[in-house]
Design goal:
There is one protein chain. This protein is mostly beta strands. The protein has a single domain, classed as Metal Binding Protein, Guanine Nucleotide Exchange Factor, Chain A, CATH 2.170.150. Helix content is about 5%, strand content about 35%. The chain is globular, with a radius of gyration of 14 Å.
Length: about 140
Amino acid sequence: MPTDVHEGGCLCRAVRYRIAGAPRAAAACHCRSCRLASGATPVAWTVFNRADVSFAVGEPLRFASSPGVTRSFCGRCGTPLAYQTCDSPDTIDITTATLDRPDAFPPAKEIWLEHKVSWVPVNEALPHFATTSKPAGGG
């Protein structure tokens, strides 16, 4: 994965972000919450250090989608942009498809397969996790 500056944003371009740092992880999430927030399944996420991410144009709206979880999206066009959790305040998950170069950030695993929609195929080349891939205790 590249380590230079990455940019991306929403469909209408009212919100644009800039990332100056390397990704920490990348996953395709099948959880119900991500499906409902995006209208898609699965949702690909690329995780970055929070300090490396800034909004260059506009500010997204934020929604507490579940306890300890905040999702960010464009208030004009509705594009889902980011996911943050109190369990990991130093990171931010960016919706991979909103990056200007999403092909540079392929998922390395699939998570929350216990919520997967039955007609959605999985990538057999990737590791699969029934729920989160994080160790017990949030590590």
